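Handoff note, outgoing to incoming analyst
You'll be picking up this chain. Sequence as last confirmed:
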Amino acid sequence: MKDTGIKFETLRKGFNFKKAFIGLVVIVAIGSVIILKGSKANYTYEQIIPFAEGEVRIRKADLNLMAVNVQKTKGCTTKDTCYESTKDVPTSGYKINEENSYCTVDNGTKDVEDKTIPMEYKNGKVYIGVNKKGTRCYIYLDIKEYDCAGPACETIMVNKTILTRAAGTFGNTITGDKTGTIYQSADESQYDDFGKVYYFAGNPTDNWVKFGKVGSSDIYWRIIRINGDGSIRMIYSGTGSAATTGTDTQITVEGKNTSAFNSSENYNAYVGYMYGTPGSKSYAEEHKNTTPSIIKTVLDNWYNTTTNLSTLSTKLSHTAGFCGDRSSSTDTSTVPAQTGGYGTTITYYGAYYRNVTNKTPSFKCTYKGNDLYTTPEDASQGNKKLTYPIGLITVDEVAFAGGVSGTNNTSFYLYTNQYYWTMSPRYFWYGTAYMFGMSTYGGLDNHNVSFPYGVRPVINLKADVSFTGNGTTSSPYEVS
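Most recent structure output, in case you need it:
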């Protein structure tokens, strides 16, 4: 860029530069921006900058971005050898190296380093809290350790320690405070239908979200995971205040805090969030998505009439979906085996073998064409049978979080000292349909579909929402 004219102007005493120029943008290269926060420089100058078409005249704070340097190899942080200069601030895939990045300030005789000037790289922009004139900044960006994209993901992942659970360890519970920690799916067998997943496990205190209202009371949620597409999956955990145990963690249904999953139990059909013709002679007829379950109706009514979530639907993902996996135990393809799953045939469903027999949970939905519940709006996959983008947690998600079938665990965030539903079928056994559910001792239990248990809704926030807060109960994440 070439200065065609510089104009110095002394600002009157008491002039609040911050109020006058909140959000001032300095273009340092086409597609790259530096946003100055709270600048109170004593002088400004005008600069004429050639742009795509014509010229743009701006008043620029007394800041020079001297260099943006990007890491060449992950893990290498030596300034002289590990970075290369770029004229464009990368839009994603990097995080700021706070140790290497710095600014200098002219003290009248020379430039001196000032590490007190705050700086942040977020959503392809560098934010610098300039409050001294003659500031020059040198930015170093490191390759991110995580793959998810989107403002909410970026906020959640800040300063997180990323861990991986190895295959063969899911027979062990995860307990205790895991604040500042997030886990990643180890390989593609644990990915969801979009890609790598980052999930909370154990008992973290930094996965709280405040979103939506019942009347004038805020709704609180716990983040389950960051989906492969960057959307944020979370489970209900109280209205008015953050609840960790007791019936406050469940929604109220017609004056009660429990509901049956389905009205009957005597056919395989009734393990479905929706179902076809009970007593059919084929798997396909039994598990068509034509009739809503009782619990689906409960969730739809709560979403549409009790809360204001329908007015916030533009913030909700309609693509992530909810998996009510009805694949049979022998199914290894995208089409369920025809040897079970209909009429009164004894059937062990896929989630049973994954989480009871083999201890190999998965975020994938085996038969997503029929069992991944999505809304018609914007959904690129799934059955598109939902009216509203709301569902339940899966037993696989409970297992990733630290729950184990038949084992007590009262020290992980999904334990509430209550029985409540998951969306995952367990088996049809001698005339009775059973779902997986959480127990009062924190294990994975079998719930008769016609019995009343707690209901904890699950929703997905879009990947492009932005968060404020730090995820604690005193400062939960909020959509901004």
